[in-house]
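Researcher: Going back to the complex we discussed earlier. I've cleaned up the inputs and rechecked each line, so this should be the final set. Can you rerun the prediction on the complete assembly and write out the structure?
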Amino acid sequence: MPQKDRQEEMAAAPVIEVEGLVKRYGAVQALAGISFSVAEGEIFGFLGHNGAGKTTTIRVLTGRTKPTSGSAKVAGHDVVSDMPRIKPLINLVFEDQNLYERLTGYDNLILFADLYRQPHSRAEELLSLVGLSDAAKRRVKTYSSGMKQRLLVARALINRPRVLFLDEPTRGLDPASAREIRNIIRDMSREGTTVFLTTHSMEEADELCDRVAFLAKGRIVALDTPRELKLRYGQRTATVLLRDRREVQICLDDATDARRLAEWMEAGEVLTIHSNEGTLEDVFIALAGQPL
Amino acid sequence: MVALYKILAIFRKDFRDALRDARVLVALIVPLGIGVFYNLTFEDETTPEATVVYAAAEQTRLPEVIRSFVGDTVRITFEQLPDESEVRQRVADEDADLGLIVPAGFDAAVAAGQSPELIVLQPPSASFASSFVAAAVEPAVRALSGQQPPAIITMEQVAETPDEATVIDSVGLRVWAVMAATVMMISMIAMLAVPIVLTEEVEKKTLDALILIVSYPEVIAAKALLGVVYVAVMVPVLLLITRIQPSDSAIFVATVVLLSVTLLGFGLLMGGMFKNANQLNTWGGVFLLPVIAPAFIVGLGLPDTIDRIASIFPTGGATKLLLDSATDQRLFSDSLTSFVVMAVWGFAAYALLVWQLSRRQA
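Model: Rerun complete. Updated structure for the full complex:
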């Protein structure tokens, strides 16, 4: 779907709406009045340092802690007063691999199939989806970290959630496992599931997310599409490699540099040009002062 | 709103999962083992027994008549030996409680009023049973001669005064031990096995996954159900293995249910206090000791103060009720108080549990 159309659709149908959300744990303020909305089917990235408030936001939105003030709605229901109606519509891939390790992978899913009133065939379907059919009858404690993570994802999909929260879903995984998880997330989004993703991986956020929010000290310091953020906060420069093997940095907003580039082009001196569009990490450093 | 299907789903998972946890298995098997051990080690027969050996040249009705005079007071076993010397040897060796040398034609001679000689042999240290049977010989011989006894004498062994008597004297060591092991079993299930299951959910953060779709009260109810089912399976197994059948099943069942529910309240409370299951497994003993101890104290004739303190614990009251229900005798006069004691502790446990849950939800 073209990004413009997608953004228009998102604006029309927010499935998560957060307004002035504050959460304090005693004297510690975890969230300092954040506001944002996430549209139906969007992959929304929530980025920030440890302790920035990412997990607290998920805890509030999934009903596991109550906000100190402000409001939050998921699928149109208030997270404080209407959580029982939200619960069947959401699910979460936890940061920790919180599985029943003495049970088999299949039994782990069956428990949640029963809790969400899903047929047991759904467990088999999901084990197949995440490539664990062969290991279904093995106890989870014999699984590798990547297999456990895939089982966590399967568990989170058991109720066909309208909103799927993922808290660092690829942390500690090898590149191949991480890619598998990302593919599943992308597929879920294509099928209309709204994805709320927290991650430390800027590449992952850039690759997956329709929009990202940068969180620092309980506040959202930037929120936009990855491309807009990179354009807004990245450097408008390019690196030109000339025939004599010289690398020259040129500024795209500078008229002198523009003339120099045109001359090199005319003279056939240019071998390659690489734009120095900023990465999300550059943006984050620019906003939060230090890398993730 | 509590949903039964959610409670049952968690219960089914726990029932399968917890039995694979060595700590839970220990909590189930140790009291069972103790009950079975006591059962095999101790006899609970309180009726005195006597073995009477005799030598008789001809058939005699004397043993049969002696048995009728002794009645149920002494459980008597007669053993006929080939000759007098063997009878004397067995009695001298104290292998028999009494010996009789019955001459030939004894029954006919007695009936004819000929006063034949009957030799009664007592061992060097005669027991109550030996003396009792010996005393029954003369009236038995009179009966053989056709004399009507001038009076029917009933002998009873007077029980010790209440201050000195213990429940073990009344119900026997085996029954007492099995009832105490029953209380111990319920305590270990409620205050060790179930809290371990709950604490492990917190420790491994699987509780977070459950809470996404169930409520805290549903999780707590599922764990309580697990405890109740463990008790409902393990207590009958203990009774079956030890072949003890309570005389008053209603009191027995009511006591087991009330004690289980009460202790489960405290167990679930404990489950929310510890950070991990190993910590609970280590320190749980500190809580379990004062809970289990009263079961092995009440009714044992210890000083009044100790007995009263033991009785204010739910396990103390429950032990009294279980002992009462195990026999036909009424050993304790405060059954109602014992039920009230358990109910009050139970109310306190669940009030604290609700408070703990409300804090957790906040």
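Model: Worth noting: Chain B touches chain A through 22 residues (CB under 8 Å).
Researcher: Good, that matches what I expected from the previous run.
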